[in-house]
Design brief:
Chain lengths: 481, 450, 251
């Protein structure tokens, strides 16, 4: 009779479905990184001088920094000179309509289940498609423009909305924040830009789908979302990459700014290639994500489902500056085989009556390591601040590790912080109970894992919940009640 | 060493090395060349390691260099009057006791005679003089790069060596009382306690660190205990240092199968109280309970650092640490539970509760789990808040004024830990110290009852 | 329907069942009574296919299938239902969602389509009402934080929805007060049918006042020691296991 462990093994050893390579002609820089590369990159994108110099300054900071060693994850030293910092499908200019897109690229997104078109499957979601270093398409642009919502590639934003970009770029994650943020600031190629004007509730989900295709490159996209007073936007991010023996670096920066009464909901389903069973290959996902609740009563909510990458190392954070602002972090991180995840959040309470809520669910199997690392900092000014943190780990098998590393720093007596953490496993009793009711062992594991993560899955927008649940090996049959 | 690693250390004040040179010849066991060599190596190691800064993860919340990196004197003589010592003599009339002042044994107040044949309690200075090789072995423990342990190894001047043979039980507690009389001399002492309990042996130990005069001082303790199968150790620790004094202590405890260890620490005074406990559970059916209360105020800083390692299946550990932080007080708690591979059926719990009562106090908490076995029950919970407003309201609705209500609730919160002390006289002493610290003191009727 | 022949079962190498034989025909209600440690729960678990119960000899047939060769879910889909003494809690999985997954798994194995949501809801609500299970309990996580009585009622609700051919009730009366006992027993009695059999495992006779069995077996020391009608249960209640079994218990 199969044990819980075997079942999980079967089910987690299923082939990575997104591991194919698309044969496109590409335009790329030779490997290497210096000021000249950065200047050429900036010139290629036709950027204004201020941005070129901003990049060069960031590069200088990058060269002066070291990779920190406080994290739990361990990896081979990264040779930053062996990476090509620009790779893009060759195209004369960005296609003006969706019909002009390279059929190979179109086929790629079809295969990934997110066809480039403005109907059927993705009705109600506007998508920006980022292929290696560049954005290849954005849907529903016209419709959004009518509302004044700007949703475009970062390159386009630099051209068309230079002042907005200049005002906010690096204002949440300064170039010198950490070594990967510095690298990104120097070499970011593209990404998405969103601006939601005052009082506008963005009527559809905005989504970016990131795809690394080329070998020997990294992906360094930059996302900036600004929600003006009283606005609302929900943004989704998905990602996949081909299976390769090399480790590819994904060092993105995401900055969110919410002004008075604005709300940003940012969801990620991360499924970068995790490497094979022995831990060969896979993406190093070293991402800096941070949101600033600048305005009063603003709200930023991060939801992430992390199943991919050889190494995930990221802490989507909220700076709760505005009085009565709210930060949320909901996370599911699944690691298997030799994967390592060190992820969590930072909630920095500055404003009065700021509130934060953290729910983290870590599931480790195989030889993997799964760490929650979080910081809740309540500054002296944060009168009446509240935080509640719940961290649950599930271990499947006795060769994996689950770790919880929360930091709580409180400088205001009127604050209330609560942190709880538990560990559990799928018990043989639970499995037998499900099977006695006719549910197969495989489905039972999925059912129990999904139950364990439900609090987080409920936070995902419907369109993403589908993919996320599939990733956890769970059918979407609507939950009754 | 990389740049990043460098910032984790600062060079020790040269006074440490000077103090060592000046004192080396009069430290216990100085006539044994091997011991002298080991001490020299240790001071060199300390100078090399330097003093940790807040970039060192283990010292993240504590600016230890600022508080201890200054000149101190080794064993300056002092003779406190008996009446100032008496209140700190604990464990009842039949307790065995070693009393030290600024690192020097005080035979007039010490008493370790009349022990069963299979038990021995010796002053560490005596062991250094009579059996230096035993101490050398103890000092030769693997170098973990800990500055203060190296400093202790260089300057070990007092402490105790306690051994109970299998099955031996001491009916009365043993008290180790370390008195510091600061005065103008800024004394430092480096006690080392070695404790060996044979299978089934039982001991109640009261460890007191008391400051009698305000002023800069440093106590740098290393405590090492090994409990064999089924041994029991009740370990009450009272840290009552005086203003400006610093205490840095590290306890390393190894627990054999079915042993029982209960440690309760009351940190009630001192500019810096850093208390490290690292417990290694090496057999099954172990019961390990670690508790502590810290009440820092007026610039005091208490840093509680706990590591519990479950290295064998089917053992149980439980931690309860609380703090009441008054004006300008700072409490840091870093507690970690490790469940090593193979330690299945481990039950490990940790609770950390902090009452932050002052505008300018600070609480930093880092409760960690690191788990490598799946069939385990582990949890931790941490809270930080003011007094519960609904409880306050309830008491006021019953006619208590706000100050009384606050005092009552604060006392109730803190007093739970008094009950965890094993020895009644230690409990009474801690009760007095706690009542003196909390603005409202102890509730009146309880006072009468106690 | 169920035919057990000379069944020997060991747990951790220790023999628990030592040659148990039992035959249950459609429509019958059999009670298996026995003192603590006689092997009652072992019988229930080995029939349902729980891991850790090693069959060292003997056979068990369910209809025309070799029951012991099937995986637990195959037994369930073939119509064997075990109402457990300690129903398991599964946090995060809604009670009704679980039941629907379970029902659809069983239906699928029988070549039926998934049950339409509306029909499912109607069925569940109807049964829940009969069992005194409130709407709120249906929405809560499976058994999580349920009281003992709520868990047992929930087991009967699952049984009513899954409509098994053979239902094994393992100490269903334990931890129930008298009102709950009646509700649960009524639930079972409603399900009695010519093509459905019950194996009621219990220590006490009181459940059998409400679920009147056709046959009563006394299990002790891993074997059926006596078989009789409902009067045997009353005799046990009055005189105790020791007196009824006499010297056989010691053996």
């Amino acid at each position: 009779m199969a044990t819980a462990l075997d079942t999980v093994k079967d089910y987690t050893e299923a082939e990575y479905k997104y591991g194919f390579v698309t044969p496109v002609e590409e335009d790329r820089f030779p490997p290497g990184l210096d000021e000249d590369v950065v200047r050429r990159l900036s010139a290629k994108k036709g950027e204004p001088d201020w941005l070129t110099e901003w990049r060069v300054a960031a590069l200088r900071r990058f060269f002066a920094m070291e990779i920190p060693d406080w994290q739990k994850v361990r990896f081979h030293p990264i040779d930053f000179q062996a990476i090509s910092y620009y790779a893009a499908p060759r195209q004369k200019e960005r296609p003006r309509s969706l019909d002009e897109i390279d059929p190979e690229i179109r086929r790629t997104y079809d295969k990934l289940g997110i066809p480039i078109r403005e109907q059927e499957v993705l009705a109600g979601v506007a998508v920006d498609y980022v292929f290696d270093s560049v954005s290849v398409a954005t849907t529903f642009k016209r419709k959004l423009e009518e509302l004044g919502v700007v949703f475009c590639s970062m390159s386009e934003a630099v051209r068309e909305h230079g002042e907005l970009v200049r005002r906010y770029l690096g204002s949440v994650v300064p170039p010198g924040d950490n070594i990967f943020a510095a690298l990104n600031s120097a070499v970011f190629s593209d990404g998405s830009f969103v601006y939601v004007p005052k009082g506008v509730r963005c009527p559809m989900e905005l989504s970016t789908y990131f795809r690394i295709n080329a070998a020997g490159t990294g992906q360094f996209e930059r996302t900036l979302i600004v929600a003006d007073e009283g606005s609302y936007v929900s943004y989704l991010e998905g990602c996949t990459a081909p299976m390769r023996d090399e480790n590819q670096l994904h060092a993105a920066v995401v900055e969110l700014v919410a002004l008075d009464d604005a709300e940003i909901k940012y969801s990620t389903v991360q499924n970068w290639y995790p490497g094979d069973k022995e831990g060969r290959g896979g993406i190093y996902n070293f991402v800096t994500k941070r949101g600033a609740c600048r305005g009063k009563r603003s709200k930023i909510s991060w939801t992430q489902v992390e199943t991919g990458s050889a190494i995930t190392w990221k802490y989507p954070s909220c700076i709760l500056q505005g009085d009565d602002s709210v930060g949320e972090f909901y996370s599911v991180a699944v690691t298997n085989n030799r994967q390592q995840a060190d992820t969590g959040t930072k909630m920095i309470h500055i404003g009065k009556r700021t509130r934060s809520r953290i729910v983290s669910k870590g599931i480790s199997a195989g030889h993997s390591d799964n760490t929650y690392r979080g910081l809740v900092r309540i500054l002296r000014s944060a009168e009446g601040a509240r935080n509640h943190t719940q961290c649950d780990s599930m271990l499947i098998g006795d060769r994996c590790g689950a770790h919880t590393v929360p930091y709580i720093e409180v400088k205001n007596r009127t604050a209330q912080c609560e942190h709880e953490a538990t560990t559990s496993k799928i018990s043989e009793d639970q499995l037998f109970y499900c099977r006695q009711r006719g549910i197969s062992e495989e489905d039972a594991v999925a059912l129990i894992v999904n139950g364990f993560c439900r609090e987080v899955m409920n936070e995902l927008p419907m369109e993403f919940a589908v993919e996320a649940k599939k990733l956890l090996g769970i059918s979407l049959e609507g939950s009754v009640g | 060493m990389s740049v990043a690693a460098n910032r984790r250390r600062v060079d020790p004040d040269p006074a440490f090395a000077r103090a060592f040179e000046e004192a080396a010849s009069r430290l216990p066991g100085a006539r044994f060349p091997e011991l002298a060599t080991a001490r020299e190596r240790a001071i060199a190691r300390f100078v090399e390691l330097g003093i940790p800064t807040q970039r060192d993860e283990a010292w993240k919340f504590t600016p230890v260099a600022r508080l201890v990196n200054r000149p101190h004197a080794v064993r300056p003589p002092s003779e406190p009057p008996l009446e100032r010592v008496l209140p700190h003599l604990l464990g009842g009339p039949k307790a065995r006791r070693l009393v030290f002042v600024n690192g020097v044994l005080q035979p007039q107040w010490s008493h370790v005679g009349g022990l069963p044949e299979r038990a021995s309690i010796e002053s560490l200075a005596r062991v250094l003089e009579t059996r230096p090789t035993a101490v050398l072995e103890e000092l030769a423990e693997p170098d973990q790069g800990r500055s203060f342990t190296a400093l202790n190894a260089a300057l070990t001047d007092c402490g105790a060596w306690i051994e109970l043979s299998p099955g031996t039980e001491l009916a009365d507690p043993v008290q180790l009382l370390f008195l510091t009389v600061a005065g103008a001399s800024a004394p430092m002492s480096h006690p080392r306690i070695v404790l060996r309990l044979g299978a089934g042996a039982r001991l109640a130990l009261i460890e007191s660190h008391v400051g009698l005069e305000p002023g800069p001082a440093l106590t740098n303790l290393v405590f090492g205990a090994r409990l064999q199968e089924g041994a029991t150790l009740a370990h009450d620790r009272l840290l009552f240092q005086a203003a400006e004094a610093a205490f840095v202590g590290r306890a390393e405890v190894h627990l054999g199968g079915a042993s029982r260890y209960e440690q309760t620490t009351l940190a009630l005074g001192g500019a810096l109280l850093r208390s490290e406990s690292e417990v290694s559970i090496e057999g099954g059916e172990v019961e390990c309970r670690l508790c502590g209360l810290a009440v820092p105020r007026e610039g005091e800083h208490v840093d509680t650092f706990v590591r519990v390692h479950h290295r064998a299946p089917a053992s149980h550990s439980d931690q309860l640490f609380k703090s009441v932080v008054e004006e300008r007080g700072h409490h840091a708690f870093a507690g970690k539970i490790f469940v090593h591979p193979g330690a299945q059926r481990t039950n490990a719990y940790q609770k950390n509760e902090n009452l932050l009562l002052a505008e300018d106090g600070e609480v930093d908490v880092k409760p960690e789990l690191e788990i490598y076995a799946d069939d385990v029950k582990c949890s931790h919970g941490a809270t930080c808040s003011e007094l519960d407003p609904s409880a306050l309201f309830y008491l006021r609705a019953r006619g208590l004024d706000a100050a009384t209500a606050r005092g009552l609730l604060t006392w109730a919160f803190a007093a739970e830990l008094l009950g965890r002390l094993a020895d009644p006289s230690a409990r009474a002493a801690a009760r007095r110290a706690l009542a003196a610290r909390l603005p409202a003191g102890a509730p009146a009727d309880e006072e009468a009852a106690a | 329907m169920l035919e057990i022949q000379d069944l020997h079962v060991a747990v951790d190498g220790r023999p628990i069942l030592k040659g148990l034989s039992l035959r249950v025909r459609p429509g019958e209600v059999h009670a298996v009574m026995g003192p603590n440690g006689s092997g009652k729960s072992t019988l229930a678990f080995v029939l349902a296919g729980r891991e850790g119960y090693e069959v060292t000899a003997g056979s068990a047939r369910f209809g025309d299938e070799d029951l012991l060769a099937l995986e637990p879910e195959e037994r369930a889909r073939a119509g064997l239902f075990l109402a457990m003494q300690y129903p398991v809690e599964i946090p995060g999985v809604a009670n009704m969602y679980f039941l629907r997954q379970s029902l659809n798994a069983v239906r699928k194995s029988r070549g039926l389509d998934e049950i339409p949501a509306a029909e499912f809801m109607r069925k569940v609500r109807e049964q829940a009402r009969l069992l005194g299970i409130g709407e709120e309990l249906l929405k809560r996580d499976l058994n999580a934080g349920f009281s003992g009585g709520e868990k047992k009622r929930n087991e009967i609700l699952q049984m009513a929805i899954l409509e098994p051919r053979l239902a094994i009730l393992d100490e269903t009366d334990s931890g129930l007060d008298i009102d709950a006992l009646k509700t649960v027993a009524d639930g079972v009695n409603r399900l009695r049918a010519p093509d459905r059999a019950f194996l009621v495992i219990t220590h006490y006779q009181r459940l059998l006042d409400y679920i009147v069995p056709d046959v009563v077996h006394v299990l002790a020391d891993g074997r059926i020691q006596r078989t009789g009608g409902p009067e045997l249960a009353r005799e046990l209640e009055e005189r105790g296991y020791e007196a009824v079994l006499g010297g056989r218990l010691a053996a």
